[in-house]
Design a protein that fits this description.
The protein has about 325 residues and is an alpha+beta fold. It folds into two domains: about 35-155, 3-layer Sandwich (Rieske Iron-sulfur Protein); about 170-330, Naphthalene 1,2-dioxygenase Alpha Subunit, Chain A, domain 1. It is built from five helices and 18 strands. It has helices at about 5-15, 190-195, 200-205, 280-305, 320-325, and strands at about 35-40, 50-55, 55-60, 70-75, 100, 105, 115, 120, 140, 140-145, 150-155, 175-185, 215-220, 220-230, 235-240, 245-250, 250-260, 265-275. A hairpin with a 2-residue loop joins β2 (about 50-55) and β3 (about 55-60). The chain is globular, with a radius of gyration of 22 Å. It binds FE2/S2 (inorganic) cluster and fe (ii) ion. The site of fe (ii) ion has 5 residues, from loops. Fe (ii) ion binds near residues 195, 201, 205 and 298.
């Protein structure tokens, strides 16, 4: 087997080669669902932002007058310019931003105008030309909620099969929030979520005194878990799909919105709120316990493990295979659903 230059450097530095690049690290594709591609505050009306999710380069943009957000594939149907990269500055040599013209994203190269669905609706320099049917890029159904812009991804481009809830605490005067945190993790989204069901690791990774008692209710697309915390309070998790969960303790809640960069890399956003009555200091330290400490105990394990399709499980392990059967519903099946 030939070792790449990057692998050779890694072996020298860490003694770990990692999975062979010739074989995919995970046997599943990018799952279906609603995935955050930007924070609402990332772009103003008429603004564009270039992002990479689902193994694709995308442009997130807002219409000029309404601010309605849209997400489209990045490369123009005409001659392939990136729709979110404008011409460069002669002074700084930096690339320019994309251009929004009214309710259209305008290609920076020859000005073709795309609507929010990804269809070309105007070719300004050739007004009498019939716009070809193929003059479109893939558009993704887009929603804005909980301070995030999310789009629907399905590998076979099927329309949205469900909607996601609004988080009540973010609009509740008694709660402080939303407080955003984020991180990039070199593993598949499913592996992050499987961790919820792996109760034994709390002892060895997070230093719990005992394996936490956790109950799980599998409810079609939804999954509810309830665990007892060391202080006697409960921790509930309401999961709506791979990559969208609402976690609640009596004084702290957070929305976990994790988006696949591709099959093996994940962008994890956690959006917190805490009960104002506990005070800012206590709220901040509860957030830090999750977002600055606990998760960083997991990350090296996830980033270096290899996926076992047939794990060797014993009595005492969490319901890992039940989890995988539940997770399977989020991948496109052979019949296209
Ligand atoms: S490449 Fe986009 S309009 Fe020509
Ligand atoms: Fe963990």
């Amino acid at each position: 087997m030939v070792m790449s230059e990057a692998q050779r450097e890694r072996v020298k530095a860490t003694g770990i080669q990692g999975p062979s690049p010739a074989e995919p690290r995970f046997p599943f594709p990018v799952p279906s669902g609603w995935f955050a591609v930007a924070q609402s505050t990332d772009l103003v009306a008429g603004g564009t932002r270039n992002v990479h999710y689902f193994g694709r380069d995308l442009v997130v943009w807002r219409e000029q007058s309404t601010g309605t957000p849209h997400v489209v594939d990045a490369y123009c149907a005409h001659l392939g310019a990136h729709l979110g990269v404008g011409s460069g500055s002669p002074d700084s040599h930096a690339p320019g931003p994309g251009t929004v013209h009214d309710a259209c994203l305008q290609c920076p190269f020859h000005g073709w105008r795309y609507d929010g669905s990804g269809a070309v609706v105007e070719i300004p320099y050739a007004p009498s030309v019939r716009i070809p049917a193929k003059a479109r890029v893939r558009g993704y159904p887009t929603r804005e909620a909980n301070g995030l812009i999310l789009c629907w991804y399905h590998a076979l481009d099927q329309p949205p099969a469900w909607e996601l809830p609004d988080v009540d605490e973010f609009d509740d005067e008694a709660w402080e929030g939303p407080v955003y945190t984020e991180r990039y993790i070199d593993t598949a989204l499913q592996e992050l979520v499987e961790n919820d069901q792996d109760t034994v690791h709390f002892v060895f990774v997070h230093g719990s005194d005992a394996v936490p008692e956790q109950t799980t209710r599998w409810d079609g697309r939804l999954r509810h878990t309830t665990a007892l915390r060391p202080d006697g309070s409960t921790f509930t998790r309401e999961t709506h799909q791979l990559g969208f969960s609402l976690m609640r303790t009596p004084n702290l809640m957070f929305l976990g919105a994790s988006s696949p960069l591709d099959e093996a890399h994940t962008h994890q956003r956690w959006v917190f709120a805490y009960r104002k009555s506990i005070g800012a200091e206590a709220g901040r330290s509860m957030i830090d316990a999750f977002a600055c400490s606990g998760i960083y105990q997991d990350i090296p394990i996830w980033e270096h493990k290899s996926y076992r399709e047939h794990p060797l499980l014993v009595k005492g392990d969490g319901p890992i295979m039940e989890f995988r059967r539940w997770a399977a519903q989020f991948y496109p099946s052979a019949d296209g659903s």
